[in-house]
Amino acid sequence: VQLVESGGGSVQPGGSLRLSCAASGFTFENYGMTWVRQAPGKGPEWVSRISHRGYYKEYVSSVKGRFSVSRDNARNALYLQMDSLKPEDTAVYYCAKNTGPASYSNYEPPRGQGTQVTVSS
User: Fold this and answer.
1) At residue 112, does pLDDT exceed 90?
2) Please, which residues have CB within 8 angstroms of residue 80's CB and are 6 or more apart in sequence?
3) Beta 2-6 vs 57-59: how paired, if at all?
4) Percent over 70 (pLDDT), the chain
5) What is d(CA 48, CA 68) in angstroms, rounded to the nearest whole number?
6) Is the model's pLDDT at 111 over the cut of 90?
7) Contacts for 52 with CB less than 8 Å, ≥ 6 apart
8) What is the mean pLDDT of the chain?
9) Contacts of 82 (CB under 8 A, 6+ apart)
10) 48 and 63 in contact (C-beta within 8 Å)?
11) Contact yes or no for 48/80 (Cβ under 8 A)
C-alpha cells in the first residue's frame, strides 16, 4: 500500500487549497478512504471520509460546509477541497485507507508523509 499526499501550502484565512492523494498497491475502488490531520502538539483527528464508490461522505463538525471530499476510482485518487480555511485548520494532512468499503470503517494508520497546510495571516 502506498499513499502519497500533495497540494498543501501556506494560505491566508479564508483561502482555499485542494489536497490530492495518489493511491497504489491495493484495489482502491474496494475501500473507503479517510482524510486525517494532525496539528502540532495534538493527536490525529479524522476530518472527512468517503465510501468506496463515493456515495457516502462524512465530515467532522468543525469542517462541515467548508471541506468537500471526493474520489476518482479510475485514477486511484482521493481529493479534499478545503475552502474558507481557518488558522485552526493548520496541520499535516494524511490520507488513510479504511479497513473496509464503508466510509465509517476504521482507518489504517496513515502511511504517507502527509502534506502540510498552514493557515496564517
Assistant:
1) no
2) 18, 19, 21, 35, 47, 48, 67, 68, 69, 93
3) unpaired
4) 100
5) 8
6) no
7) 29, 30, 31, 32, 73, 101, 102
8) 97
9) 16, 17, 18, 19, 63, 66, 67, 89, 117
10) yes
11) yes
Q: What is the DSSP letter of 64?
A: T
pLDDT in tens, 15-45: 999 999 999 999 999 999 999 999 999 999 9
Q: Comparing C-alpha atoms, which of 25, 23, 120, 17 is closest to residue 71?
A: 23
CB 77 within 8 A of CB 23: yes
Cell 457516502, residue?
Answer: 56
Phi then psi dihedrals of residue 65, to 5 deg: 85, -10
Whole-angstrom distance, CA of residue 84 vs CA of residue 101 = 30
Please give the DSSP secondary-structure letter assigned to residue 42.
S
Q: Residue count of the chain, please give it.
A: 121
- What is the number of other CB atoms lying within 10 angstroms of the CB of residue 111? 15
| pLDDT, tens digit (0-9, with 9 covering 90-100), for 57-68 | 999 999 999 999
